[in-house]
Amino acid sequence: MADKLLELNIEKIVYGGFGLARHGGKTYLVRYSAPREIVRAEVYREKKDYGEAVAVETLLPSNQRRDPVCPYYEFCGGCQFQHIDYDTQLKIKKDNLLESLERMAGLNLTEVETIPSPQEFGYRVRVQFKVKKGHVGFVRWDNRDIVSVENCPVAHPKINELIPSLRELTNQVKDLQEIHVLYSPTEEEFLIKLVTPTYLDKELLKKLRKSYIPPSVVGVGNYFRLRNGLHKRYFVGREYTFISVGDFKYRVSNDSFFQTNRFLWEKFANLVVDKAEFKKALELYCGVGFFTLPLAKKGNFIEGSDSNPSAVNDAQYNAKLNGIENAIFLKSTAFKHLQLRAGEVLDTVVLDPPRSGLIEKEIELLLENKPESIVYISCNPTTLARDIKRLSKAYRLEKSCVIDIFPQSYHVESVNFLRIKTP
Ligand SMILES: C[S@@+](CC[C@H](N)C(=O)[O-])C[C@H]1O[C@@H](n2cnc3c(N)ncnc32)[C@H](O)[C@@H]1O
Question: Which end of the chain is more exposed for a tag (fewer CB within 10 A), N or C?
Answer without folding.
Answer: C
